[in-house]
Design brief:
4-stranded antiparallel beta sheet, globular
Length: 149
């Protein structure tokens, strides 16, 4: 009899675990309007298109070319505003571009590149490419891990 109860308990525990795993993760819906303007340590930044490429327009109206195609946008936080992370007193934003693969494939290639303001100079990180379509809130490691510190 205890084997039966143990088996039922084990089965119920497994079903409960599966249903917990099946619960959808909280995802931030992508903003209906791409986030192309941000403020980094008081400096206004804007993402613009130049010859099909994503470019970061600096406060002095000079451009910093990013290594991704247009359209691109800043990564949104949970509230749909630009997500900014700070590491070692250095503010960082992340810019992303997602390109769907040709049909019938349903995957995408997402390109991410971080931008930091260090010693009053904007610096870009190396580029990260991943196989995902979602553009949304990212872990701080995506902001910091793309740079050499």
């Amino acid at each position: 009899m205890t084997r039966t109860y143990s088996g039922i308990t084990l089965l119920m525990g497994a079903l409960f675990s599966l249903s917990a795993c099946a619960q959808p993760q909280e995802q931030v819906p992508a903003p209906s309007t791409p986030l192309t303007q941000a403020t980094l340590a008081g400096q206004p930044l804007q993402l613009v298109e130049h010859e099909g490429q994503c470019v970061l327009r600096k406060p002095d109206n000079s451009d910093l070319k990013l290594e991704m195609n247009w359209p691109c946008q800043f990564t949104p936080d949970k509230q749909g505003k630009v997500q900014t992370e700070v590491h070692n007193s250095v503010p960082i934003v992340l810019v992303e571009h997602s390109q769907p693969n040709p049909a019938p494939d349903t995957d995408c290639v997402k390109t991410s590149q971080a931008v930091r303001l260090r010693d009053n100079t904007l610096e870009t990180s190396r580029v990260n490419r991943s196989a995902m379509c979602h553009i949304g809130q990212q872990d701080q490691k995506m902001f910091t891990g793309l740079f050499r510190w």
